[in-house]
């Protein structure tokens, strides 16, 4: 007959084996969730209305998508707002669990794990709607127009090549807000920025959105991603959980409802804009 100490040791070993088996089964079957386990992850982000913003409804549409995706997997989210460069760098060093949200680049791929795409943005040219429609296919078509662009904004390689070769000569300004003011004041003919962000900033300036026209085609259609540092010890597991949650909210309709949301802060609805601005 084994001693009590041996019996306890065998019992402990059996329980450990059972626990490991359950963990292995859960990992092999993503649909199986461990009940009653809650955790909170911290995500470094920045101000980029309407996609992200501390004072926006649900902290912006992209950040709401992230919250809902994690919530479907019983994970809570805390956003920490920082300057964008610092948000990326501190996430790269593993000080945050993730960062929201970023376009693709070779440098970022070197240091970060990328989620499935969150949204597809549109970088477009804005002109005044009262002017004749500007049509373009190549940058040479824009060479006779006054353009402005924002220092530090991510445009395309073709855009910068056109600048370097003097095909276009945009006035470089510190912010998109200044771009909009220059356009409305008729000091420029065009400026390029992310479509929804452009309309949002115009609304903050009490500019009727009907005074702006988006011309086609888009300059670019970059995808936005959640990033997690490759040095994060749980990075791959957290990313797998997030991607699974993102698939869930796309399947159940939550994702589309977020993108289609129109509320009292809507910047597309002219009836919500101060009538004095018209």
Structural notes for this entry:
α2 (61-71) links the parallel β1 (39-45) and β2. This protein has helices spanning 4-28, 61-71, 84-92, 106-111, 157-164, 176-184, 195-204, 235-251, 254-259; strands at 39-45, 75-81, 98-102, 112-114, 119-120, 123-128, 147-150, 171-173, 190-194, 212-220, 223-229. The protein is globular. The chain has 2 domains: 39-120 and 223-259, D-Maltodextrin-Binding Protein, domain 2 (3-Layer(aba) Sandwich); 123-221, 3-Layer(aba) Sandwich (D-Maltodextrin-Binding Protein, domain 2), CATH 3.40.190. The longest helix has 25 residues, at 4-28. α2 crosses α8. It has 9 helices and 11 strands. The strands form 2 sheets. Strands 1, 2, 3, 4, 5 and 11 form a 6-stranded mixed sheet that branches. It has a 5-stranded mixed sheet with strand order 8-7-9-6-10. With 278 residues, it is of the alpha/beta class.
Topology, element by element:
Elements: H1 4-28, E1 39-45, H2 61-71, E2 75-81, H3 84-92, E3 98-102, H4 106-111, E4 112-114, E5 119-120, E6 123-128, E7 147-150, H5 157-164, E8 171-173, H6 176-184, E9 190-194, H7 195-204, E10 212-220, E11 223-229, H8 235-251, H9 254-259
Parallel strand pairs: 1-2, 1-3, 7-8, 7-9
Antiparallel strand pairs: 3-11, 4-11, 5-11, 6-9, 6-10
Helix pairs in contact: 2-8
